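Project standup — Tuesday

K.O.: blocked on the structure for the chain from last sprint. Re-posting the sequence here as requested.
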Amino acid sequence: MIPSASFVATALLLGGVAVNAASIDLRQLKRSPTTGAPLTLRKRDSHLMGHGDGDISTFMEGVYTATVQLGGQDYNVVLTTGSSDMWVDTAPAESETWDYPMTFLYEYSNGTLTLEGTVASAPLQLGTYRVEEQAFLDVDDKTHDFFKLAGVNGILGLGLDRSNSTIDMAVKEKEGAETTWGQSFIYNMFETGIPKYITLNLERTEDLNEVSGGSITIGELPEHYEAIKDAPKIELYPPTSPRWTIVVDKFEVGGETVRVHSHLGAAHRAGVALVETDLATPGGYLPTTLLDEVYGKIPGAAKWINPATNNTRWIVPCSHPLQLSYYVGEHEYPLHPLDLTRVWEERPADLQDYTVCVNTISGYNDVKPDHDISLGYSFLRNVHTLFDFGTNGNPYIQFYTERDWTKSQEEFALHREPSKIGKEMNPDVVVDLLEKMNSPSHHHHQSGSAATATGSEPEASRPTGSRNSGSRGSARTGDADSGGAVAGDGTDDGTLKKYMPVILGLLGGNLLVGLVLIGLAILNYVKRSGQAKKSGTPHYVPVMKDGDQQVLFDSDGSSKRYGS
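H.V.: unblocked you, prediction finished:
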């Protein structure tokens, strides 16, 4: 069972034919069940390797999972609309393994997971819906390393069946082009004759801060989905896309238009961005330049670049609602401000005494091969979604929204008021502390510097807006070569003046201690010299402090360091 996961039973309605309704329990994975060390930093067997800046356990936080029965055994799998394949960490006993070894690349928000294994098949049951022979990749992970790291057993793809399933291609290559048992799970469902679409709705808890789960239906509209039938049909772009990619024309942030563009060049229309819609991308992601355009418009926000990963994090005032809408053509899809920023629960220990809020949508610096932006649950929470696989032609997506900005703003203010989130630390101060934590001197003076910085009331509570004055925040980054902290806005002089009295006091104290030690050494030498004729055995006189014995000289008269 996944810690902190919430449950909601959802009906899987299998069209207008007389079949038993399948039921799925969707869970949202909130926390990695382990320490969540980055996959790239762990020594892993060759069958399970990660590449990139991302932390696979961080990627898994927030994804939606369901329990399926594969070969009569329960598996907790991530549901994704970005893939059509299925893989699990270890095949069940009741399965047939085929001699089709293969390497499977699974992309997540900040990296790629390389999985090695063999193709296998077994009966698959989702609720009451059953496929007698479902192909999947059996990752050779007998020690369940992946589950220990990520808290799930694998992936169940609900992507386009025309996405050239890696597993299906491998099976057809070995068994012949007419072989069908290697095809995707979603294709097997549609072969029963049900309409070729699925609907998705992610539900919030009553306090609005969390999502309790969601519902998926196959081949039939729930009653509360009737309005989606009249929503605009958004065709895939390009029309032959193997993934759920569409075009976004612009963003609107706080009433200001933010233009978008595609890095894919002449292959796509100018002045638009290609967007992938994937349930398994937690908060979604944007190119870092566009991420800065969005979060940099929050008054008082401060940007920090992690020198270890080069990833961008925006520290934002918790009480400021960000107004963001995506435009597809002339149709606006606004996002709830609670989906755009969050309390940084996994913040470093030096920040634990204060509340810190950060961006929910991530940024990336590399180049994606087939899209610019990913719409994760931060977007999908705000719409009812219908994915049509081509019931009457080409595939398309429909979004239906009832989001009202005035109501969303009121809800945000209610749940982000200071009495509920606690004492907040100014974003500028947070960035200063993060820089110090990533500097070499932090390891030598960690306790003192942390106490000074976090214990300063004026710094923690000073008015926001000092960094970007309501415009774009200035970047702060550590020097990757030296590991030191580099200020991006020229505040080093102010910091030096602020701490100069403390520095002078410490220097004076050290000088005084040095003089005392020298005096004690001279007295000890004189005393020993006067008694040398009476006794040939040197001895020392311990100096007592606060009831503890602190030895300053060894028996041979040499100086003894504190703590040695």
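K.O.: great, moving the ticket to review. The chain has three domains: 6-204, 221-495, 509-564. The two ends are 48 Å apart (CA to CA).
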